[in-house]
């Protein structure tokens, strides 16, 4: 099979065939690489625009044809630059959406783990046992308070004399 037909029929690498969708980290890395590549292309086009503008000024009225050609190239570069700006905006939006989706997925996964942990902690608890325990604690606190009150009352040796 020719290289072109493999390309159009999805003849990619063995790793991409067997796995399916890429992981969020892989997709984010590729989006960042694309952003970097487009940023470099932007810088290149900006310098080319400046160079063509300088060439147009240099030729000025002396060589109108060369000046017009320089201005046409400048306009073409500006059009490419605006297309790259739009593409970059789209890629940034997609990257941010993917990052947010990945964050939401991780949060949801962690909340699920926490819910399972809470379920495991609570599976050995019975509400009736808890009510009984709380009543026992309340009774013991009342007994402790009575003992504390009895100890803290002044002993009335001799004050209460029975005639």
From TrEMBL:
Task: Extract the Gene3D superfamilies matched here.
Answer: ESAT-6-like (1.10.287.1060)
Bias regions of kind Low complexity — which residues? 1-21
Q: Indicate how the chain sits in the lipid bilayer.
A: Peripheral membrane protein
Chain coiled-coil ranges: none
Which GO terms of type biological process are on file?
A: late endosome to vacuole transport via multivesicular body sorting pathway; protein transport; vesicle budding from membrane
Q: Which GO terms describe its cellular component?
A: cytoplasmic side of plasma membrane; cytosol; ESCRT III complex; late endosome membrane; multivesicular body
- Protein's name in the database: CHM4C protein
Instruction: Region Disordered: list its residue ranges.
Output: 1-25
Family to which this protein belongs:
Belongs to the SNF7 family.
Give UniProt keywords alphabetically.
Answer: Coiled coil, Cytoplasm, Endosome, Membrane, Protein transport, Transport
Q: Does the keyword Transport apply?
A: yes
Q: Where in the cell is it found?
A: Cytoplasm, Cytosol; Late endosome membrane
What would be one Pfam family of this protein? Answer: Snf7
């Amino acid at each position: 099979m020719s290289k072109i037909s493999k390309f159009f029929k999805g003849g990619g690498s063995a790793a991409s065939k067997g796995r399916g969708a890429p992981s969020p980290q892989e997709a984010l890395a590729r989006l960042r690489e694309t952003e970097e590549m487009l940023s470099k292309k932007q810088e290149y086009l900006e310098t080319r625009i400046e160079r063509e503008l300088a060439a147009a000024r240099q030729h000025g009225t002396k060589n109108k044809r060369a000046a017009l050609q320089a201005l046409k190239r400048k306009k073409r570069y500006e059009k490419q630059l605006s297309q790259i700006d739009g593409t970059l905006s789209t890629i940034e939006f997609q990257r941010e959406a993917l990052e947010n989706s990945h964050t939401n997925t991780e949060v949801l996964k962690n909340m699920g783990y926490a819910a399972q942990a809470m379920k495991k902690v609570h599976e050995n608890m019975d509400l009736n046992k808890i009510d009984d325990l709380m009543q026992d604690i309340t009774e013991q606190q009342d007994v402790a308070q009575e003992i504390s009150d009895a100890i803290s009352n002044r002993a009335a040796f001799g004050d209460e004399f029975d005639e």
